[in-house]
Design a protein that fits this description.
Radius of gyration of chain B: 14 Å
Number of domains of chain A: 2
Structural class of chain A: mainly alpha
Helix content of chain B: 40-55%
Number of strands of chain B: 3
Strand content of chain B: 5-15%
CATH topology of chain B: Rossmann fold
Order of helices and strands of chain A: HHHHHHHHEHHEHHE
Number of helices of chain A: 12
Oligomer: heterodimer
CATH class of chain B: Alpha Beta
Number of helices of chain B: 4
CATH architecture of chain B: 3-Layer(aba) Sandwich
Largest sheet of chain A: 3 strands, parallel
Number of strands of chain A: 3
Shape of chain B: globular
Strand order of the largest sheet of chain A: 2-1-3
Largest interface: A-B, 45 and 43 residues
Distance between the termini of chain B: 19 Å
Strand order of the largest sheet of chain B: 1-2-3
Structural class of chain B: mainly alpha
Radius of gyration of chain A: 23 Å
Chain lengths: 244, 139
């Protein structure tokens, strides 16, 4: 039998990454409340990926294995779906632990696809992670609308209002629709038309996605949310409807 | 013809909870017919994430994303449904990709497509995700 310890625990109490996350969360995210029952892991689709699971991740954080959890790619395989919190008898906020692992990673160690989507979203006030500008967006909506009005009977007066003031609903749209499959916007317009909804798109802040949040960049995430919220407020809309 | 629905984590578990999951089923059943609807197990707030959330689609980890999604794929297959309705854009992208990757027999469709199809207002260019069985209905 080997006498080599599997895990070496330091004698001196050190400052744990977990404690820094607990300081940020209401009730410390209950991160010290784990009973090790494993209900989180048994119902997590990310269990087993990168030799990790939610319980293991939290136990490692509790034991101060900061280097190991901070270097694990698993933080990008957990979708932060919160099912683990939902089933946990102690309501432990493992997803916030994951978010903060993402957050402290240097930008050049984060997944390139997520970083570039965040960068593109910061380029225009549209917040589009595919880089669609105000002009691109307004053009595609007008173009698709005109075609439907001309070609589909019963929809000659279909509307897709842009920057209408005081509407009840400000409708967001995922960038993939206007950029890659604009016809997919039409059924939504028809439903809103059929029920007589008072709605509008905005030329700014319309993109539903926020990859700066997924990236764990608090500053850029806030900037995106503030741009979107301002667009809704500037038009005086009552409800911000997110399709994603 | 059977239809199942994906409860989006963002809409259900993370935002409005089981009441919105009930609203979703009310709409879906009204659209496809109650006898044609079949739920996945588990569902509502207890549903599994499909693997399209959290930026996974853009994380450059397709192998892991597919492994994650295999649970969702098997869950859908078990229902025997011909269509999986996805009322979230990320769920649609991921489940559509899962069906292609694991060679599933089901189609992945936006809720708005089926609502307009049921109302008889779905245009010719708005049918990308319908299977051949529904592609011509109401044209």
């Amino acid at each position: 039998m080997s006498t080599e310890p599997v895990i070496k625990l330091g004698q001196k109490k050190k400052s744990l990454f977990k404690d820094s996350v607990m300081a940020l969360l209401p009730d410390g995210g209950n991160l010290n409340m784990c009973l090790t029952c494993g209900v989180c892991s048994s119902g997590c689709p990310a269990t087993g990926l990168a030799d990790m699971d939610p319980r293991k991740f939290l136990r490692m954080a509790s034991m101060g294995m900061d280097e190991e959890i901070l270097s694990s790619p698993w933080a990008w395989m957990c979708t932060m779906c919160q099912r683990c919190i939902y089933v946990c008898p102690m309501q432990i906020d493992i997803p916030q632990l994951i978010y903060n692992v993402r957050s402290v990673k240097p930008r050049d160690e984060k997944p390139k696809g997520i970083v570039s989507s965040c960068d593109l979203a910061l380029k225009h006030d549209t917040c589009s992670a595919m880089g669609a500008s105000e002009e691109d967006w307004v053009f595609v909506v007008e173009d698709v609308l005109e075609e439907v009005r001309d070609s589909q009977s019963g929809f000659e007066s279909l509307e897709a209002p842009m920057d209408k003031s005081g509407a009840t609903f400000f409708l967001n749209q995922n960038s993939r629709e206007p950029v890659t499959e604009p016809d997919e916007m039409v059924p939504l317009w028809k439903i809103l038309h059929s029920v007589g909804a008072d709605w509008t798109y905005g030329s700014k802040g319309w993109a539903a996605e926020n990859y700066c949040m997924f990236m764990g960049d608090n500053k850029d995430w806030e900037s995106i949310v503030r741009t979107k919220a301002k667009a809704v407020d500037d038009l005086g809309a009552k409800v911000w409807l997110n399709t994603e | 013809m059977k239809f199942t629905v994906q409860d989006p984590c963002q809409l259900v578990r993370k935002s409005l909870g089981d009441p919105i999951a009930e609203d979703l089923r009310f709409v879906v059943k009204a659209v496809v017919g109650e006898e044609n609807f079949i739920d996945m197990t588990p569902n509502r707030s207890n549903n599994f994430c499909c693997g399209g959330g959290g930026g996974f689609l853009q994380a450059g980890l397709p192998e892991e994303r597919h492994a994650y999604g295999s649970q969702k794929f098997n869950q859908i297959i078990k229902t025997g449904a011909d269509y999986c309705i996805t009322p979230c854009h990320n769920c649609h992208s991921q489940i559509h990709d899962l069906s292609e990757h694991f060679e599933g027999t089901f189609h992945t469709v936006h809720l708005w497509t089926l609502i307009c199809l049921a109302m008889g207002t779905l245009g010719e260019n708005e049918r990308t995700y319908l299977g051949p069985d529904l592609a011509e209905v109401g044209l």
